[in-house]
């Protein structure tokens, strides 16, 4: 219930007042916020400054959205715009590729990541399991995941963290990726020398492209992986 500001009519039900204001006073009544204003200019100022009014300036009729999220969704789906970069593309495929290249978007599940390395690590969750365990029939999406499985002691071979660490130090190129003077972090990246407590963590570091080190066959860690397979028996 309430009075109409402009014609002194009293309405017993707020719904009736709302319908009356919409019909008779559209220039001074905000339908969305259900507020009267003293003048058309006052209403215009309200619409311009309110977070509940978000206009699309790219549309000829400039539709008004109730939230910025709704406006951004409209800009992305209708105008193919990146609302972060404030740039629009010609088609949705160009926008999607921009999101992948610039905003670390996973095309498979639509999740954004803070860095390319985090995206690459996440993509492993969608990857096909192609890395076999030398000690059991299990398959893994990465070499680091396979070694982590061995370290965890869940492999049928009976291998555990101590055995994997022992094998890592027995490899003839271990001097390239181990630290004898740091018992808490006995492994290091051969390229950037970042320390690690476990060899699986070092492998994850290399797989994430955090530095230029690789796991190719001729590299120190590639040699370790080959040696590991020869020492772990199913």
UniProtKB/TrEMBL annotation:
Any one GO molecular-function label of the UniProt entry: zinc ion binding
UniProt domain C2H2-type: residue ranges: 104-131
SUPFAM superfamilies: beta-beta-alpha zinc fingers
rRNA-binding keyword on record: no
Source superkingdom: Eukaryota
Keywords (A to Z) from UniProt: Metal-binding, Repeat, Zinc, Zinc-finger
Matching InterPro entries: Znf_C2H2-type, Znf_C2H2_sf, Znf_C2H2_type
A matching Pfam family: zf-C2H2
Keyword RNA-binding attributed: no
Name of the featured protein: C2H2-type domain-containing protein
Source organism of this protein record: Thermothelomyces thermophilus (strain ATCC 42464 / BCRC 31852 / DSM 1799) (Sporotrichum thermophile)
């Amino acid at each position: 219930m309430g009075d109409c500001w402009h014609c002194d009519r009293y309405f017993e039900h707020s719904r009736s007042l709302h319908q009356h204001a919409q019909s008779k006073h559209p220039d001074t009544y905000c339908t969305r916020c259900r507020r009267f204003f003293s003048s058309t200019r006052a209403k215009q100022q309200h619409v311009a400054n309110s977070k509940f009014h978000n206009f699309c300036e790219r549309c000829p009729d400039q539709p008004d959205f109730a939230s910025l999220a709704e406006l951004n969704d409209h800009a992305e789906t209708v105008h193919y715009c990146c609302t972060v970069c404030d740039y629009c593309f010609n088609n949705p495929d160009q926008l999607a590729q921009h999101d992948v290249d610039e905003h670390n978007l996973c095309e498979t599940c639509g999740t954004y990541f803070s860095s390319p390395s985090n995206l690459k690590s996440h993509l492993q969750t969608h990857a096909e399991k192609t890395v076999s365990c030398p000690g059991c029939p299990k398959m893994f999406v990465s070499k680091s995941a396979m070694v982590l499985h061995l370290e965890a002691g869940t492999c049928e071979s009976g291998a555990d963290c101590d055995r994997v660490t022992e094998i890592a130090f027995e490899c003839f190129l271990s001097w390239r990726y181990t630290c004898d003077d740091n018992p808490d972090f006995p492994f290091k990246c051969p390229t950037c020398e970042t320390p690690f407590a476990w060899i699986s963590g070092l492998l994850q570091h290399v797989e994430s492209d955090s530095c230029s080190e690789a796991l190719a066959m001729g590299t120190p860690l590639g040699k370790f992986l080959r040696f590991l397979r020869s020492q772990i028996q199913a």
